[in-house]
Amino acid sequence: MVRAQGGILLLLLRILLCSVFPETNIASGIGSLVYGNKPDAAASALFSCYHAQHIPDPITMGAYLRGIPSRSLRMHRIWWSKHRHRLALSIFTHSDLDRLKSLERQCRGYPGGLITVAVWVPIIAEATTPPAPGQKPQSGYNLTAAQSAMLANATNTVDRFYTTFESPAINSSANGSSYPHTCILRIVLVYELVANDIMAALMPLNILRNTAMLMATTPLVAMVDADMLFNWGLAAKVLMNTSRVVMMEHKAMRELTVWVIPIFDTNTTRSIPERVSLAEEAVADGRNPKAKLLDMWHKRGDVYPYGMYGYTLGHGPTNYEIWSNTSSDYNVTYQTGYEPFFIVARRVLHR
After folding, report:
1. What global pTM score does this model have?
2. What GO terms describe the biological role, i.e. biological process, of this protein (predicted)?
């Protein structure tokens, strides 16, 4: 994988409210908020579970620093593709409206595979007037007209994005078959009540990732960032190798094995368009794509292992020198601070 753009995001370690959701259907009114094919039990139940502990109190910096989890996140709408995914690995990620272009490139690089994404919209709650003596305090929080309009615009933006990939002209092969040549998307739009513009700038990464993971339904899953591109061989070779996939599923479930994903960054001295072009070159099809990638690293200096010039503990144990010189699996020893991207059994993450 190659990261098309750099960027620093502050991690907010917030607690996910629903780690498992029931396999039962709920009120038909919820179904109207699930777009795509006819809403099934899992998609509808996701609304019910996610909102079961919802409290409309905006998250504040003070509450965050005291370790009090936000319960003001709310699912607004789900888009659930009617197309059938064909790969055993789901990719789950997070995004905001500004990163949908990156997500578009990612989706086109994972044909036939399922990508689930939680799109975040922060809403700064307006101060409420304290109740007069003898009056009951207001329960809940009603969005203002301006906030409702902003959420409607966000919904329309995501809907246009989703429709682009759901179109039969886009998600079918040249000979008219149903074989997709882009990813299969499941998207949930989540808004969060926050106390001020500081909290509106801090994306709750972990809770969004976990929210997206709840929509994954394949044996294997992998968490990535939305600005990563996949090497063409992931969908075209690795996941089309039946014996390889069976082995990965077996080891993931029986031996709790995870597969670390090598990830490269593009040269930060280049412009954003140049970095996007380099990323697309690095993941493109070819006779020997790994040799090309190594050439871009060692000879041209256009790419390098992610974290090589920053937080080296985060990805150093992957040992890219070994990876460069082998085509076989090798063991990686966990070290404190190691934060790799990896493939793992979905059921293991729910334990």
Report:
1. 0.83
2. protein O-linked glycosylation via mannose
What is the enclosing helix (H) or strand (E) of 269? none
Which residues make Cβ contacts (< 8 Å) with residue 55, sequence separation at least 6?
Answer: 71, 72
| Residue 154 CB partners (closer than 8 Å, separation 6+) | 97, 119, 121, 189, 191
- Asked if 104 and 76 touch (Cβ cutoff 8 Å), the reply is no
- Whole-angstrom CA distances from 153 to 62, 97, 100, 163, 291 are 30, 10, 14, 15, 45
pLDDT for position 146: 92
pLDDT tens across 12-52, in order?
Answer: 222 223 333 322 222 223 334 555 444 456 677 787 788 88
- Residue 121 and residue 190: Cα distance in Å, rounded? 6
Q: Is residue 201 part of a domain?
A: yes
Q: Note whether residue 347 is domain-resident.
A: no
For the record, the structure tokens of 95 come out as: 């995004």
Number of domains into which the chain is organized: 1
Per DSSP, the residues of 214-248 read TT--SSEEEE--TTEE--HHHHHTGGG-HHHHHHH
Token pair of 131 as six digits = 């109740």
Residue 227 near residue 5, CB atoms below 8 Å = yes
Instruction: Give yes or no for residue 138 having a pLDDT over 60.
Output: no
For residues 258 and 252, give the distance between their C-alpha atoms in angstroms, rounded to a whole number. Answer: 6
In a domain, 129, yes or no: yes
